[in-house]
Design goal:
single chain, 255 residues, 10 helices, 49% helix
């Protein structure tokens, strides 16, 4: 492919998103700078790779370019905010095969596919598998930049969600077994009296456990605690008596 014929001229007035990369996050009490996002470019045409790097450089984005899917898969860092711009038709691994292998690894890198052909069935497969967009070559510069920024924003949200979930799991790990039972009952809408009846404890004891749950989970209200439980998917907080008779549960606790 001669020159950069697959890429149109860089647009004016594109927003610089590099300022987002200076925000700090906290991972289990240790503060560190967020790594800058990277755009992975995978195309077996050297001129296309260079043209894409130049275009993305106009908005301050770092790029890593690869001539094959194997090279890309060996270098991809799922912990770094990123997206991938892949040609659907590559020598060796196809773009769709790369997408499949990333999914198998659990590497959720948002993908933008480029194609020089009107391949509607393939585009549909790519979108169903989670692609952010499928763009035709020669690609419109603004359309590509918009898609890349959208993909990076998606990946940032995913990583933020993962961090929030990890922090919730860390808080939940501080709960005792009885506190987990109380939390499960509380978020299911049971009153202290009913929880005491289910767990064979006094209402005063349940109030103490409930206060400990709120403190350890760092929840400021019951609705917030319910949202936390939803995020945890009730895995470690299974209801001690979701459908059991309270008397039977009390007898079990006494045994």
């Amino acid at each position: 492919m001669p020159g950069d014929s697959s890429i149109s001229a860089a647009p004016r007035g594109v927003r610089d998103i590099s300022r987002l990369d200076q925000k700090r996050n906290d991972v289990e009490g240790a503060s560190s700078l967020k790594p800058a996002p990277v755009v992975y470019i995978v195309d077996d045409d050297t001129s296309v790779r260079r043209g894409l790097e130049r275009l993305l450089g106009t908005i301050g984005l770092a790029c890593q370019a690869f001539a094959s899917g194997d090279e890309f898969l060996a270098a991809v860092d799922p912990e770094r905010p990123a997206c991938a711009v892949l040609d659907i038709r590559l020598h060796g691994l196809s773009g769709l095969e790369i997408q499949r292998r990333l999914a198998e690894r659990g590497a959720h890198v948002p993908i933008i596919f480029l194609t020089g052909y009107a391949e509607v069935p393939i585009a549909v497969r790519a979108m169903k598998a989670g692609a952010v967009d499928v763009l035709m070559k020669p690609v419109d510069s603004q359309s590509l930049l918009d898609a890349v920024q959208r993909a990076i924003a998606i990946d940032r949200r995913r990583q933020a969600d993962q961090l929030a979930l990890a922090q919730l799991r860390q808080r939940a790990s501080r709960l005792t077994g009885r506190e987990r039972e109380v939390m499960a009952c509380v978020v299911s809408g049971r009153s202290n009296k009913v929880i005491a009846d289910i767990l064979g404890a006094t209402e005063k004891t349940i109030k103490v456990h409930r206060a400990a749950v709120m403190a350890k989970m760092e929840a400021h209200s019951l609705p917030e605690l319910v949202r936390m439980a939803d995020r945890l998917s009730a895995g470690p907080l299974s209801d001690p008596a979701p459908a059991a008779d309270a008397t039977a549960v009390r007898e079990t606790n006494k045994a």
